[in-house]
Amino acid sequence: QIQKSLQAANSTLQPGDMRLIEAKDPESELYCLLELIKKYAKQEDYSQIAVLARNHSDLRQISEFLISHNIPVSYQSSLDVFEQEVIVLVVKISKLLYHLSRPTLKRVYELLPEILGHPAFNIPTQQLWEFSREVFAKRSRWEKHMDLKKFPDVAYYMHFFKELSNVSQALPYRSVFDYIIGSKTFEERQNLFDTLVLKSPIKEYFLSQEDLESYQSLEALKSFIEAIEAYYATDNFDCLQALNYFEIYENSRLKLNFQFAIGNAQSCQLMTAHGAKGLEFETKIVKICYQEIK
To answer: Do the beta carbons of residue 121 and residue 153 sit within 8 Å?
Structure first.
């Protein structure tokens, strides 16, 4: 028989108080939480305050709210790289670049609407519709409709994809990846005097804000490229090898997890009840739930 005793780190506990607070709606609940954290914080040190919630979706909502009100938070969770919006888009563009260099363009026509319709590209729906209608009506290849005057936004990114597809056949994927996310740009000569700078919108759309979503996207991108490099044991792999790597995960339904974590030693601790087991804090705030009863 195993004898197991549990002993608190603090041998003597100071008297405290326990309160049940009922909020009238979710917004009021968040502001009540904010006031409690401010009340029990020791100057700028929030490290002895723990906020517990049922699941990570609740914790994400709380963290975004507290960060927006200048409360430092410590929060971590395990996420699947391939489920992140920015990675889904990067993979689609990678596939597009490969198929643009193939004899058949069937996959190109399937991928283009999905990519150009993403909010990151900010292309008016009317322009996308008119472009698609013209290509379909004339039964012609999309390259013949790259008119910057008639379809400025669509044509701009068409030029970008075509240029990147051409160079991607000679570049390692790591360099292509930098073009895909917008860390590198192309310059396309239009005439003797004008040069068109071609750039992906991904970096500006996903990484330009100092918020939780931008940080998560950045960590996903880092984990994504590092995982492929680790798989091939080199950073000198090409686009086809990258596509083969994507296919392995898609066909086997594997997960590529990465640890998403923010915060420092003085941050307010956000965690699930499971994650809080065995830990002690001076102030515990448990977010049970908000449910409207009719």
So the answer is: yes
CA dihedral 217, 220, 221, 225 (to 10 degrees): 180
CB burial of 224-262 (b: ≥16 within 10 Å; e: otherwise) equals bbebbeeeeeeeebbbeebbebbeebeeeeeebebebeb
Answer for the pair 285, 33: CB distance below 8 angstroms, yes or no. Answer: yes
pTM of full prediction above 0.90: no
Tell me the per-residue pLDDT of 208-231, one tens digit each, with 9 for 90 and over.
987 888 999 999 999 999 999 999
Given a cut of 70, the residues of the chain with pLDDT beneath it are: 1-15, 139-143, 145, 188-194, 278, 289-294
Would you list the DSSP string of the chain?
--------SSSSPPP--------SSHHHHHHHHHHHHHHH-BTTB-TTEEEEESSHHHHHHHHHHHHHTT--EEEEEEEEGGGSHHHHHHHHHHHHHHHHTSS--HHHHHHHHHHHTSGGG---HHHHHHHHHHHHHHT--GGGG--TTTSHHHHHHHHHHHHHHHHHTTS-HHHHHHHHHTSS-EEEE-SSS-EEEE--SHHHHHHSSSSHHHHHHHHHHHHHHHHHHHHHTSS---HHHHHHHHHHHHHHT---EEEEEE--TTSEEEEETTTTTT---SEEEE--------
Structure tokens at 150: 């008639």
pLDDT digits (tens, 9 = 90+) for 2-56: 666 656 566 665 667 788 888 888 899 999 999 999 999 988 899 999 999 988 8
Beta-carbon contacts of 186 under 8 Å, excluding residues fewer than 6 positions away, are: 160, 163, 164, 179, 197, 198, 199
Nearest to 145, CA basis, from 107, 181, 111, 109:
109
- Are 202 and 90 spatial neighbours (Cβ–Cβ below 8 Å)? yes
